[in-house]
From TrEMBL, chains A, B:
GO terms for molecular function: nucleotide binding; oxidoreductase activity. The keyword Acetylation does not apply. PROSITE patterns: PROKAR_LIPOPROTEIN, TAT. It comes from Hephaestia caeni. Gene3D superfamilies: Dihydrodipicolinate Reductase, domain 2 (3.30.360.10), NAD(P)-binding Rossmann-like Domain (3.40.50.720). Keywords: Oxidoreductase. Residues 176-367 form the Gfo/Idh/MocA-like oxidoreductase C-terminal domain. Residues 36-159 form the Gfo/Idh/MocA-like oxidoreductase N-terminal domain. This is Putative dehydrogenase. The keyword Acetylation does not apply.
Amino acid sequence: MIDFTRRDMIAAAGGIAALALPGATACARADSRTLGYAVVGLGGYGLGRIVPEFANCAHSRLTGLVSGDRAKAERVAAEHGVPTRNIYDYANFDSIADNPNIDIVYVCLPNSMHAEYTIRAAKAGKHVMCEKPMAISSAECEAMIAACKAADRKLMIGYRCHFEATNLEAMRRARAGEIGTPRYFRSEHGFVQGDPTKWRLKKALAGGGSLMDIGIYALNAARYMTGEEPIAVYAHEQTDRSDPRFHEVEDMIEFQLEFPSGVIGSCMSMYSANQSHILLMGDKGRIELEPATGYSGHRLWVGRGRETEITPPPGPGKTQWAGQLDHLVQCIVEDREPIVSGTEGLRDLRIIEAIYRSAKERARVGLA
Amino acid sequence: MIDFTRRDMIAAAGGIAALALPGATACARADSRTLGYAVVGLGGYGLGRIVPEFANCAHSRLTGLVSGDRAKAERVAAEHGVPTRNIYDYANFDSIADNPNIDIVYVCLPNSMHAEYTIRAAKAGKHVMCEKPMAISSAECEAMIAACKAADRKLMIGYRCHFEATNLEAMRRARAGEIGTPRYFRSEHGFVQGDPTKWRLKKALAGGGSLMDIGIYALNAARYMTGEEPIAVYAHEQTDRSDPRFHEVEDMIEFQLEFPSGVIGSCMSMYSANQSHILLMGDKGRIELEPATGYSGHRLWVGRGRETEITPPPGPGKTQWAGQLDHLVQCIVEDREPIVSGTEGLRDLRIIEAIYRSAKERARVGLA
């Protein structure tokens, strides 16, 4: 499936070309198995977080940009050694199909656009990295999975914590039985949302409020820390609708998860207070992370309380983003499923839908 | 209502008598406004925790003992300077009415006996301190309140955390607005329950499992940290009924509380893992206690995270128990309601009943 010879040549060519340009570091470090990414959406996350991370990658290069703002795209392209011919806008996006320098499309658009651009990318023959939440409905997720399958392309969701050293070490120790039988999982995730004009506060673009944005970390962690899928949820939402930030989307939503083993999960999502915390309690101790899923500064304790802080072994990449970006490349090269594939994103969306339904109906909702 | 002259004489006489005996410290420190307590039930808490605390009191003296084990009671009496004539058993308990050295009865019996002994004590003309949970049903609580009211006696519940310096400082800072508007309260309380033969694991004696014993700390804290009464609950119970400890009572029960201001409360009670934690998050910061409600070693942080640990000013008593014991004396002397009166215990029991009902029905239960 992968034309290694062509890839090698592209990688080598990219490396040589890049040496003469700013941002050469990324390409200079690349070995023969590198693939090229086009980042779609040059907003805070795409431009601020993803674009600079290619410098930390071993197998991933930034080779394309998709933006509605040509001037901005040109600035970014110049800074990161992306040829201007590899800049696209939303009108000509599908012609990316003809560009052999772009292997993967990284969708960093508002949530409501994830499905469309993932499907269009797959149809253009590109593998897809899609930011979380995967989409704004499980139906969209299913369509995205189907489109990538039909095009025989990989689909991965941007769950960076699965490549973050502290979270990985927490998972490993939970699975190794270091705290005995897990009994209770808890996670709160929140931050104080500011500007009411942000797309994240518009229902049509975001699909929901804090749960779609930050609470999904608690939900995903409930699953990766327990290694189980919930069988039922109960949720309670609390939003001050008179607050201009929350005219359209929820502020606080708390949800309880029931797991088959009997573990109880308790999660909180909020746009009105700051928290990034994960706790897994077992009958012989506990694992705690705080901050748990931030961009940096993660801390981990394992034991009876916070007496013993753990320094985890290095993660798979130089940074969590580098690990994430390179993982998809390796999955493509080795033709295997990403550890956080579309199925992983779909699972979260199905639970998110059940959470919203539970909060609306004020009743427990079972999960098939 | 209080005969100060008689009390003064009794106190003085007690002080003098006690000087010749071991345990004189308690009495030697007592000033003129002291009252005498009879401790009912010489089990782990009554004997292990309450009896020694009179040595730390300024207004409370141990003047009586009620036990089914005469030999044990005599040993304790000798050790603490209690005259043997002030030893009662459960058969002759009501004759305590004739003993002017006993002003207050402290009920430290299994939960199912709280109502009976509180009512009998009130009928014997004694004020009552009753250990938490106040009783095993709200109906019992109502009968206890009515009996004490009819006898014109004070009734206080042994909520020691209301006299514990760290918890008091946490409440004060919450009320002072130091973390802005409270948004979310969370508390987990649990320990690993051992011996399956304990009365606490017998439904008839305990009235319930971890919630009655340790989870009530989370519930009570939800109320004293927010300063609000919940309007609805949702609970989920998880118990391994094949575990010999849990044939009759629940292990884990998680409950969500809805408060009128919009604060969400999330509480966990468990008999299969250790935790003593309180968190109140506001839009400008958080207050955290851990261990929160133990016998010692309380820690408190106020701010964005755990950067700033707070050393609280001293509590009202030398210890939380001394503060608790002396508070009831002062309330009797000054004829005012204890801050944790029978009404406080009743409120918790009504919520506990709603929690159990919610867990059973798997549905949200509103609170009147």
